[in-house]
Amino acid sequence: MNFCVALGGNPNAGKTTLFNALTGSRQHVGNYPGVTVDRKEGRYVQNGHEMRIVDLPGTYSLTAYSVEEVVARDFLINECPRVTVNIVDASSLERNLYLTIQFLELGIPTCVALNMIDVARGRGITIDDKKLSRLLGVPVIPIMARSGYGKKDLMAAVETVAQVPRPQPLRVSYGRDLETAIQEMEKVIAGGNFLTDLYPLRWIAIKYLENDAQILEKGREKDAQIADRLETITRKVGAHIEETLETYPEAMIADHRYGFISSMLKQGVVKERHDENRLFLSDRIDKVLVNRFAGPIIMLLLLMGLYQFVFTYSEVPVAWCEGLFAWVSDLVSNRLPDGLLKSLVVSGVIDGVGGVLGFVPMILFMFFGIAVLEDSGYLARVAFMLDRVFQIFGLHGSSVMAYIVSGGIAGGCAVPGVMATRTLRSPKERIATLLTAPFMNCGAKLPVFALLIAAFFPHSRAGMMFVLTLISWGGALLAAKLLRMTVVKGASTPFVMELPPYRLPTLRGLMIHTWERTWQYVKKAGTVILGISVLLWAAMTFPRLPPSQIEAYDTLRGGIISTATPQVIEELETATKAKLLSDAATELKAAVLAADARRAGAALSHSLAGRIGIQVETISRWAGFDWRTNIALLGGFAAKEVIVSTLGTAYSLGSVDTEAAESLSARLVVEPGWRALTAWSLMIFTMFYAPCFVTVVCIARESSWKWGLFSMVFNTSLAFFLAVMVYQVGTALGY
Predict the structure, then answer these.
(1) How far apart are CA 189 and CA 229, in angstroms?
(2) Which of 470, 289, 461, 300 has its CA nearest to residue 365?
(3) What is the three-class DSSP state of 485?
(4) Range of 194's domain?
(5) How far apart are CA 105 and CA 168, in angstroms?
(6) Are 211 and 80 found together in one domain?
(7) Geometric angle at alpha carbon 108, from 120 and 499, rounded to 5°
(8) Is 277 part of a structural domain of the chain?
């Protein structure tokens, strides 16, 4: 028997940990139709039954307040999984059971996974899972998702639930006023078969009382007349409750659900050992890590330590990758005849994509470090500590997580960072956050920074990365303050956040998270970056030089060779890397390479991309960018990784030293016009200029195309202003 199993639960309840434990490597990530929310699926086989495991977005409720809640609910309704496993944090049972009650009210076949039972016991909480199971009417299985404890018992219970009929929806009493309205609405709904093909009858009435936006919209599309009658009943009972009890139907429904949960737990389900003087382990750790004075210092030290770890341990693997691509480039250069095919493969593909893939080891180490901080629960503390700072700049505490996801700790991605702004209730704070989140140092910018740091600041790599991180945060906050004072004015809203307990990350979970993110980077390099690199190679190759100019360069090269003796020419033609050349042969080689470089430079400047770069150079030179750098930055509008691949292509097509084995970092160091100040200017511009095209589309989808286009213009203008300031001030000071 094959069937679908959904994993649902609150954020930080251990849902993804359980998903990884069940599916391991048998999983893939996609998107739910029509939205950019991740959809994770995997396989689990037991007793010949193949289960399709779907990890639903973390949510506190099934009321449609956010995209995640709508996605989770729509999947449960439309896909009808045979069983839903509700992962519950045993140490916060009452709050977590709120979602459980909503599953049961919807009539969903449910198994409750009582996760982190060890944390609950450590806090003196004892839970009678058998009694809780009898009261809820569904299996309740204690588990520890991190260690795998209880996993087999849980899946055996899932197997059992999958083979029994679908249960009747749970009925929770909501008091006389609401129950009277619900009964009246049920008659109207039943009489018109109103949405009953999708939802339980009583549940529809409750959703109308909760003013559920999605249900209200579907109701008007289904039957506007019945929808009006239901909304009239809702307004009537809402006005009565507000007048007599000074509250709202939504609040009363939540109160009665919690009352139902509380009365159930008081029947001997939970026994708690009270000790007012006792501090739990997480609380003791927080007294240091979240301390008002020590907390920020420790946070900065951890960040510096992360960069030191990444650059120290990735240096050798990165060198191996560079050597591998240099060897492949040499091999192909020697095997293929001169011509367009050789140029495409060597300059367009190997130098382009290879420049990006060469940084995979560094990206892998960075993602591993971030996974440790994330899985341990520390990143939530970072958001908590920075909330007060963000309030000063007109942002919300939840904006911190959007920044972190976008690359606040270098290596994230702006797309999920922009999507993370959905948790912000204030539209003004949300716009300010999604416009400035792309300023963070995402994984796409890392190769650019790593390239320039390796070339011009090789002895202070971690320190440079730390400084660049501080600059990105400072620039984003100042830009947010400017936006909040001008185009997105509005009052700030309070920040409330639940801090998850500290957990020791599992090696399996860290490996899965690291591999998922690294594979996305590699896949992007092998698809998007490859395609853009080939297109840019074509733009840097065509139109080709006129025959008259080609003939002139050939004549120049032939003239240089004709001045040498036959012995010197033969020595140069038969030379190997291990063989030292005579002075005459060395001079001839240098002269020939110089002539070839002049021809390559002329061909590149004559191409479409070269002409555009030269035209823009009249402005870009104020920031220290030459025409070849301009070509790379134009490609960066599509994807920031392309900056490195395009620089590699540009300098292999028209470099001073055309030997393929030389790394791009080494080429830049000897190129005229390149110096440490130029690198600083380029890093600042790359950090702040227009988001990549995918991020712009995401901003437009999350807000409107007006803000998507605004982000391109505003970010690029700000980036160019800052780059010019850095370059001109540095030049004036003699750097």
Answers:
(1) 10
(2) 461
(3) helix
(4) 176-272
(5) 8
(6) no
(7) 30
(8) no
Supply φ then ψ for residue 173, to 5 degrees.
Answer: -80, 130
| CA end-to-end distance (rounded Å), the chain | 71
Radius of gyration of the chain (CA): 31
Are both 111 and 204 inside the same structural domain? no
What pLDDT is stored for residue 36 in this prediction? 38
Percent of the chain with pLDDT over 90: 25
Helices (H), 542-657: 547-562, 566-573, 583-606, 608-620, 627-636, 641-653
User: Number of H helices and number of E strands within the chain?
Assistant: 34, 9
Contacts by residues 153-159 (CB-CB < 8 Å, ≥ 24 positions apart): 154/85, 154/111, 154/113, 155/22, 155/44, 155/46, 155/51, 156/46, 157/111, 158/5, 158/51, 158/83, 158/85, 158/111, 159/46, 159/47, 159/49
Q: d(Cα 271, Cα 269) in Å, to the nearest integer?
A: 7
3-class SS of residue 586: helix
Alpha carbon 242 to chain centroid distance? 43
507 occurs within a structural domain: no
479/273 Cα distance (integer angstroms): 50
Q: What are the CA-CA distances from residue 350 to residues 150, 355, 411, 542, 587 (Å)?
A: 49, 8, 24, 19, 30
Query: How many angstroms separate the most distant Cα atoms in the chain?
Result: 109
Q: Are 562 and 364 in contact (CB under 8 A)?
A: no
pLDDT number for residue 25: 57
Residue 608 shares a structural domain with residue 698: yes
pLDDT of residue 733: 92
Q: What CATH number should be reported for the domain holding residue 50?
A: 3.40.50.300
Is 319 found in the same domain as 212?
no
Size (the chain), residues: 735
Report the alpha-carbon distance of residue 81 to residue 84 in Å, rounded.
7
DSSP state of 580: P
385 vs 294: CA distance, rounded Å? 11
3 state SS of 455: helix
Residue 723 has a pLDDT of 97
Low-confidence stretches of the chain (pLDDT beneath 70): 25-39, 64-68, 274-280, 420, 422-423, 425, 492-499, 576-579, 652-662
CB 588 within 8 A of CB 560: yes
Is 638 in a helix, a strand, or coil?
A: coil
Q: Are 161 and 83 in contact (CB under 8 A)?
A: yes
Which of 463, 485, 507 terminates a domain? The answer is 485
* Sequence-distant contacts of 481-487: CB under 8 A, at least 24 apart: 481/392, 481/393, 481/394, 483/394, 483/431, 483/432, 483/435, 483/436, 484/393, 484/394, 484/395, 484/428, 484/432, 485/394, 487/710
CB-facing half-sphere around the CA of 413: CA atoms within 13 A: 16
Euclidean distance between CA atoms 397 and 382, whole angstroms: 10
Tell which phi-psi region holds residue 123, choosing left (phi > 0), alpha (psi between -120 and 50) or beta: alpha
* Closest of 554, 556, 540, 576 to residue 648, by C-alpha: 540
CB within 8 Å of 154: residues ≥ 6 apart: 85, 111, 113, 141, 143
Residue 722 one-letter amino acid: L
Q: Is residue 287 part of a domain?
A: no
The verdict on 121 and 196 lying in the same domain is no
Helix (H, G, I), strand (E, B) or coil at 84: strand
Same domain (yes/no): 183, 155: no
Q: Same domain, yes or no, for 138 and 75?
A: yes
In a domain? residue 517: no
* Same domain assignment for residues 371 and 314: yes
Helices marked H in 24-169 — which ranges?
67-74, 93-105, 117-122, 129-136, 151-162
Phi, psi of 22 (to 5 degrees): -80, -40
Place of tokens 């402005």: 619
660, 329 contact by CB (below 8 A): yes
CA distance 90 to 691: 42
Is the pTM above the cut of 0.90? no
How many structural domains are present in the chain?
4
Model pLDDT, residue 477: 95
